[in-house]
């Protein structure tokens, strides 16, 4: 099986193939998988059906020739940097590649999760073959950059990023249930969210868990929360992590790595980066203002 696909069934034949995995991560027990690779081959022919939705962004390189067909959609030309493709789950992809030398990022997402996150049903998502979409490209680039800096990304961040990408791919064809304009989060619901976040701050918190506190579907929760508070749910969780860290720095003489872990940051470097951005100073400098810690 060629390294171009991780899940599904089909047949493929490749010659002169070389693969170097650059980044890999998964969330929610494999419901979301990010896979970034450098890929070279003389030729590849495949007929494949994925059981997960697939977004691919070509970051660098090119092919001499690319031919892809998914149902009535077809592309014939070259794969180049900046190309964005989307293969819907259970769609059969017929493809051939000649003289490929690419760096690409791929995001695999379980269809049921996509529908839960943003309401985008499978029939609302058509194939995109070597198209151009600056937003999807930026979202994938952001995930690549954060993983490179921290080695780990919060589940809520990846869920939010995935929802934005799929709402974009739906391009207005998704079902009207995607629109929840004017909805807000009540004071009581905000209090439940705050209590839940504070109780679980030391671990990864999923966007779906926050939505559960309000009784809203994830597809409308993020917009309602942002409309009410002026910040995304992910930014709110980071804010609470920083506030917890401030208290720890002021009261306890713990190592910075321990505080980062207890406050739910993915690493000490992630903790330092976020804390500096929020307060204007690194954690060590902030701590120096509070002598006599326990």
For the record, the CATH class of the largest domain is Mainly Beta
Helical content stands at 25-40%
CATH topology of the largest domain: Jelly Rolls
Contiguous low-pLDDT stretches (5 residues minimum) are 172-181
Rounded to an integer in angstroms, the radius of gyration calculated over CA atoms is 22 Å
Q: What would your notes on this structure say?
A:
- The protein has 2 domains: 9-170, Jelly Rolls (Sandwich), CATH 2.60.120.10; 180-287, Arc Repressor Mutant, subunit A (Orthogonal Bundle).
- Helix content is 39%, strand content 28%.
- The chain has 10 helices and 9 strands.
- It has helices at residues 111-118, 134-150, 155-170, 187-199, 207-212, 218-229, 233-251, 256-262, 268-279, 283-287, and strands at 9-15, 18-27, 32-49, 53-62, 65-70, 73-77, 84-87, 92-109, 128-131.
- Strands 1, 2, 3, 4, 5, 6, 7, 8 and 9 form a 9-stranded antiparallel sheet that branches.
- Strand 5 and strand 6 (73-77) form a beta hairpin.
- Helix 7 (233-251) crosses helix 9.
- It is globular.
Element layout with pairings:
Layout: E1 9-15, E2 18-27, E3 32-49, E4 53-62, E5 65-70, E6 73-77, E7 84-87, E8 92-109, H1 111-118, E9 128-131, H2 134-150, H3 155-170, H4 187-199, H5 207-212, H6 218-229, H7 233-251, H8 256-262, H9 268-279, H10 283-287
Antiparallel strand pairs: 1-3, 2-3, 3-8, 4-7, 4-8, 5-6, 5-8, 7-9
Q: Features of this protein?
A:
294 residues; alpha+beta; Jelly Rolls; Arc Repressor Mutant, subunit A; 2 domains; nine-stranded antiparallel sheet; 10 helices; 39% helix; 28% strand; globular
């Amino acid at each position: 099986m060629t390294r171009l696909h991780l899940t599904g069934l089909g047949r493929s034949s490749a010659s002169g193939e070389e693969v170097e995995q650059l980044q890999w991560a998964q969330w929610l027990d494999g419901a979301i998988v990010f896979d970034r690779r450098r890929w070279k081959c003389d030729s590849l022919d495949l007929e494949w059906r994925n059981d997960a939705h697939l977004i691919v962004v070509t970051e660098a390189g090119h092919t001499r020739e690319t031919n892809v067909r998914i149902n009535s959609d077809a592309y014939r030309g070259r794969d180049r940097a900046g190309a964005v493709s989307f293969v819907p789950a259970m769609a059969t992809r017929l493809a051939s590649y000649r003289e490929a030398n690419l760096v690409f990022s791929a995001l695999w997402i379980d269809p049921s999760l996509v529908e839960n996150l943003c309401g985008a049903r499978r029939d609302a998502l058509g194939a995109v073959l070597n198209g151009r979409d600056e937003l999807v490209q930026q979202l994938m680039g952001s995930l690549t950059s954060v993983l490179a800096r921290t080695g780990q990304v919060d589940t809520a961040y990846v869920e939010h990023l995935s929802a934005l990408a799929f709402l974009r791919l739906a391009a207005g064809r998704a079902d009207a249930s995607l629109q929840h304009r004017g909805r807000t989060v009540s004071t009581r619901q905000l209090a439940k969210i705050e209590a839940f976040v504070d109780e679980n701050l030391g671990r990864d918190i999923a966007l779906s868990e926050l939505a559960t506190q309000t009784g809203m579907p994830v597809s409308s929760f993020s917009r309602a929360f942002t409309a009410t508070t002026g910040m995304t749910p992910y930014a709110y969780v980071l804010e609470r992590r920083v506030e917890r860290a401030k208290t720890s720095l002021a009261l306890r003489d713990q190592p910075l790595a321990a505080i980062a872990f207890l406050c739910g940051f993915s690493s000490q470097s992630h903790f330092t980066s976020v804390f500096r951005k929020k307060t204007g100073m690194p954690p060590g400098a902030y701590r120096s203002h509070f002598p006599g810690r326990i």
